[in-house]
């Protein structure tokens, strides 16, 4: 799950945590996998990171963490609750294509099957976090999602049904390939004054997403992809990155005059 960035934060304000430290935005993953298709996919995602780092840095290193965090959980829920249904659709489509002799789809079937089990219930974790900080856990279900998460998720449905379910790997590479630092939950709890029990989703994904990200990148390296399929995965990843940045910008807009203007835009490169 991509939650708080990848690499050193670039924030327009002093980036100090509760103990005078910047909130670390990224956890370690399998840094050795920098070659092959997985390495190229990582490189494409990294090219799109500057703006994401900037807006993440503003959110977590600014003064409004306690006020912002409940809205962040609701925004994150709008993404996370789509994950399992997306993979279920990808699994069904992969099975259909595998029956027609598609070798890539055939290799995707066991991946989707396993990962659906691994991701089931993560949207409930977010509702539990809301309850732990004294908020209504049904709040994200009552909110009307903006067009941004609809665009983020809707593009994946289009690609998996009308091109190939392998595209969804690019989306997952962004969501799970850049786990939060293990320190983020503790530091944000200290800074906000909110109970640590309300940050369990971040804490869990700091560990889980290292394995999930590495599993995905290893799969990308082993699939018999065509050049166009490889490009499609990169396109999907960059679309997701762009949409996540937009979601975080919308969140920043609610905190302080001109919040969005303090986060300079950066171009998203082509796939």
TrEMBL record:
Gene3D superfamilies: Heme oxygenase-like. InterPro entries: Haem_Oase-like_multi-hlx. It comes from the Bacteria. Residues 7-24 have a biased composition (Low complexity). SUPFAM superfamilies: Heme oxygenase-like. Residues 1-35 are annotated as: Disordered. This is Iron-containing redox enzyme family protein. It comes from Streptomyces paludis.
């Amino acid at each position: 799950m991509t939650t708080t960035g990848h690499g050193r934060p670039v924030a327009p304000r002093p980036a100090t945590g509760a103990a005078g430290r910047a909130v670390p935005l990224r956890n370690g993953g399998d840094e050795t996998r920098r070659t092959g298709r997985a390495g190229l996919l990582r490189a494409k995602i990294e090219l799109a990171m500057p703006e994401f780092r900037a807006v993440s840095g503003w959110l977590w290193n600014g003064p409004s963490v306690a006020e912002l965090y409940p809205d962040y959980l609701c925004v994150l829920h709008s993404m996370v609750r789509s994950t399992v249904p997306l993979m279920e659709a990808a699994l069904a489509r992969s099975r259909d294509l595998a029956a027609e002799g598609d070798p890539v789809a055939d290799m995707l079937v066991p991946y989707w099957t396993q990962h659906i089990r691994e991701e089931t219930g993560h949207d409930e974790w977010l509702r539990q976090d809301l309850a732990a900080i004294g908020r209504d856990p049904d709040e994200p279900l009552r909110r009307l999602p903006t067009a941004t998460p609809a665009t983020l998720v809707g593009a994946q449905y289009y690609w998996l049904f009308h091109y190939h379910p392998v595209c969804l790997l690019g989306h997952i590479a962004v969501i799970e390939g850049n786990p939060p630092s293990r320190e983020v939950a503790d530091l944000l709890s200290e800074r906000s004054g909110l109970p640590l029990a309300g940050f369990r989703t971040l804490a869990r994904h700091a560990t889980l997403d290292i394995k999930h990200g590495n599993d995905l990148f290893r799969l990308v390296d082993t699939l018999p992809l065509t050049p166009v399929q490889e490009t499609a995965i990169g396109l999907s990843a960059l679309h997701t990155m762009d949409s996540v940045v937009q979601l975080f910008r919308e969140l920043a807009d609610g905190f302080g005059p001109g919040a969005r203007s303090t986060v300079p835009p950066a171009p998203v490169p082509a796939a």
